[in-house]
């Protein structure tokens, strides 16, 4: 029997392609895990669910590291927003990871599906949403809103994870009033923090499959860099359209699971 950390070169190549696509999607609007996680589950049938999650986080943090840096250098997001967002996303993710074993996974899919339908419909029905940054709060109220987004979405990422980046983007656009491009920049930084929090839990437990994770991580990094550069070059309208397409895909994917189609 092959070791779970020793897939064939063919399987590794397919996982690498999935990671490349996931890195691009993640950098633009978030949610690359919905591409990467199923690929890992199919490609590594002998791995435990925790090993799959841990390896996915290792690959993901490679992409979020480079896309965060690319966005930071080109967008210069306000540290008064992204620092509290990042710190509390880290804490929320750590709490979510601890709580994960106590929450039935079957309860998540219907909740996520409803949330994605509402999010997608809201963005479609408000075509001017996220075109420009028009902040809804100032001072401490703005910081409190960023902290709230960090804790709630971070907790979700630690407990389950699929679509985390998209929920960050939507919360920053819909609640705080950022443009889609500004929101994507901050979402990447926050998502980097939630990935790090999960790895702080998983690495000491020895759950990461390093060879597979690092190969996928290198491809996720390339995808993340290209995705961030594309989003910056094409601006908020492109990110908005990409967001609608990706959320629609997630609705079909998770809806199929809930209805037992797949």
Task: Describe the fold and architecture.
This protein has 262 residues and is mainly alpha-helical. It has helices at 9-28, 33-43, 49-75, 79-99, 108-125, 139-159, 164-176, 180-202, 210-259. It is 78% helix and 0% strand. α3 (49-75) runs antiparallel to α8, α6 packs across α8 (180-202) and α8 (180-202) packs across α9 (210-259).
Secondary-structure-based class equals mainly alpha
Quaternary assembly: single chain
Beta content comes to under 5%
The CA-CA distance between the termini, in Å, is: 28 Å
Shape: globular
Order of helices and strands: HHHHHHHHH
Helix content: over 70%
Low-confidence stretches: none
Number of domains: 1
Average pLDDT for all residues: 90
Number of strands: 0
Report the radius of gyration as a whole number of Å.
Answer: 17 Å
Number of helices: 9
The largest pleated sheet is described as: none
Protein name: Probable membrane transporter protein
Family: Belongs to the 4-toluene sulfonate uptake permease (TSUP) (TC 2.A.102) family.
Organism: Nocardioides islandensis
Keywords: Cell membrane, Membrane, Transmembrane, Transmembrane helix, Transport
